[in-house]
Amino acid sequence: MHLREKLAKLWAYGSMALVAAVIIFLFGYIFQEGCQTLTWEFLTQPPGGTVLGSTGGIGPAIAGSLWFAGMALVIGGIPAIACAVYAVYFCRKKGVFRLIRGVMQSISGIPSIVLGLFAYSLFVRILGLGRCILSGSIGLGVMILPFMEVRAEKAFLEVPKSMVDSSYALGCSRFYTFQKIILPYCKGELISAVILGGCYAMGATAPLMFTGAVAYAKSPTSIMEPAMALPMHLYLLVSQGQASMPAAYGTACVMMGIIFVSNLAATQYARRCRAKWHQS
After folding, report:
1. pLDDT for residue 239
2. Among 252, 257, 128, 141, residue whose Cα is nearest residue 200
3. Structure pTM?
4. Could you give the CA distance from residue 94 to residue 161 in angstroms, rounded to a whole number?
5. How far is CA 198 from CA 29, 74, 143, 204, 239, in A?
6. CA Rg, the chain, in Å?
7. What residues contact residue 230 under an 8 Å CB cut-off, 6+ apart?
8. What's the pLDDT score for residue 1?
9. Residue 183 CA, distance from chain mean position
10. 55 pairs with which residues across the strands?
């Protein structure tokens, strides 16, 4: 093996080890500091005290984050999967395909704070919806739209072309082929993309700052209400200084735990679905 190949291999393995070490240290440090704060009352009670986080917990923030993420998946996930289906199986014009790809790439390059300002200007101010879950979820939905479309498109492209062509050759319609062959084959990857998109939305702060997230609120019961959110709550706790750091570590620990478990579940579910398909 030449010296250059050895150096390239060493550089690759070294980079992987460094990234893994940083991730493990980050998760370990946050969980070590945050676990000292985690109690049942912290996970279920609303925050209280004159200083945010000095008493109480993050119960409404957890509920609000789930509302924001769920609405963002409805707003962004449905058109994302629909665009992926059209681009892969129904689009016959290269110009239209390039247009879809260009729009997705353009949206993915927009900073999240700009999407938040757009949602604030249009939905909070102009349309008069006010600060609510719906206004914030629209900004989050636009943010995760290209994220989910790319993954759904990749899942559809991985379906063996011979299976699709064989179905068409037997006289099956496109809808039947999609329902009975394509969708079962891609089910794991699609659900994984949905879960990861929800995690992406749950960890975003900028689109919520002026659209729907607030410092103090009860657990929401409607999409037309403002709500607390874990990333916004964490940002406010850290900005208050050292006095709120225990609650900040606890909030970060909960948020990272939810995202980590969701990512792990999405990956395992996709693998099980793919293995089950190959065995059937």
Report:
1. 84
2. 141
3. 0.88
4. 19
5. 25, 10, 11, 10, 26
6. 22
7. 58, 61, 62, 64, 65, 202, 251, 254, 255
8. 56
9. 22
10. 48
Position 181 scores a pLDDT of 84
DSSP string, the chain: --HHHHHHHHHHHHHHHHHHHHHHHHHHHHHHHHTTT--HHHHHSPEESSSTTSEE--HHHHHHHHHHHHHHIIIIIHHHHHHHHIIIII---HHHHHHHHHHHHHHHTS-HHHHHHHHIIIIIIIS---SSHHHHHHHHHHHHHHHHHHHHHHHHHTS-HHHHHHHHHTT--HHHHIIIIIHHHHHHHHHHHHHHHHHHHHT--GGGTTTTB-SS-PPPSSTTS-B--HHHHHHHHHHT-GGGHHHHHHHHHHHHHHHHHHHHHHHHHHHHHHHHHHH-
Tokens standing for 141? 């939905």
Q: Which residues contact 57 (CB under 8 A, 6 or more apart)?
A: 39, 41, 42, 43, 44, 45, 46, 47
- What's the CA gap between 36 and 264, in Å, rounded? 24
- Dihedral of CA 5/11/14/15: which sign? negative
Q: How far apart are CA 29 and CA 11, in angstroms?
A: 27
Max Cα-Cα span within the chain = 71
Structure tokens at 208: 């919520």
Residue 221 identity: T
Q: Running along the chain, 280 residues long, what does each successive block of 10 average in pLDDT?
A: 79 91 90 87 84 81 92 92 88 85 87 88 89 91 92 87 84 83 84 88 86 87 91 87 82 89 84 72
Amino acid at 266: A
